[in-house]
Write a structure and sequence with these properties.
Elements (H helix, E strand, L loop, with lengths): L1 E4 L12 E3 L2 H8 L5 E3 L2 H32 L3 E6 L6 E6 L1 H10 L9 E2 L4 E3 L1 E10 L2 E11 L6
Parallel strand pairs: 4-9
Antiparallel strand pairs: 1-2, 1-3, 5-7, 6-8, 8-9
C-alpha cells in the first residue's frame, strides 16, 4: 500500500515522503495513529501544499533539539544496580532507567531517543548517545554503581 507520511518514522522516511508499506502495517499502525495518509491524488496535492509548513516546523524542531542537546550534553547520571559476586550486573541498564535518571536531574528525554549501542551490563562509566533529532545528538555519561555501597 502506498502512503504519505505525516510524521517522521525512523527507518521509513520523513514527513511528506510517499512510501510503499505492507497493507497490515499501514491499516493497523500508520493510519490509525495518524502517522500516514493513503496516497490518493487528492491527498498528494494536499501534502504538497503542507510541505512548506512542515519545513518551518522541522526547522523549529531542530532548533529546539539543538537547545536541548546543549543543555543535556556532558551530563553525568548515576544508577544503582544489583551486582553479583564477580562484579557483573543482574540484568542490564535500560534506556527507561536512564530516561528516569535524566528526568530526576531535570532533563525531559524520551526513552526512545536514547541510543544504547550495546547493553550496559558492567559497573563503571559508560558513554551513551541521545538522538534528539535526526541531525542532532548529545552524549551523556552513565555511571553504574553497585547497590548498597555509599557514593564516593
Amino acid at each position: 500500500m502506498r502512503v504519505i507520511l505525516t510524521e517522521e518514522i525512523r527507518g521509513l522516511g520523513v514527513r511528506g515522503d510517499v512510501v510503499t508499506v505492507k497493507d497490515g502495517y499501514a491499516r493497523n499502525y500508520l493510519l490509525p495513529k495518524k502517522f500516514a495518509r493513503e496516497a490518493t491524488p487528492g491527498n498528494i496535492n494536499v501534502v504538497e501544499q503542507q510541505k512548506r509548513k512542515w519545513a518551518l516546523l522541522a526547522q523549529e524542531e531542530k532548533t529546539a533539539a539543538q537547545d536541548a542537546a546543549s543543555k543535556v550534553s556532558g551530563t553525568k547520571v548515576s544508577l544503582r544496580k544489583k551486582v553479583g559476586e564477580s562484579g557483573t550486573l543482574y540484568g542490564s541498564v535500560t534506556s527507561h532507567e536512564i530516561a528516569d535518571a535524566l528526568t530526576a536531574a531535570g532533563f525531559e528525554v524520551d526513552k526512545r531517543k536514547i541510543e544504547l549501542s550495546h547493553p550496559l551490563k558492567s559497573l563503571g562509566e559508560h558513554e551513551v548517545e541521545i538522538k534528539l533529532h535526526r541531525d542532532v545528538s548529545a552524549k551523556i555519561t552513565v555511571e553504574v554503581l553497585p547497590e548498597g555501597e555509599p557514593e564516593a
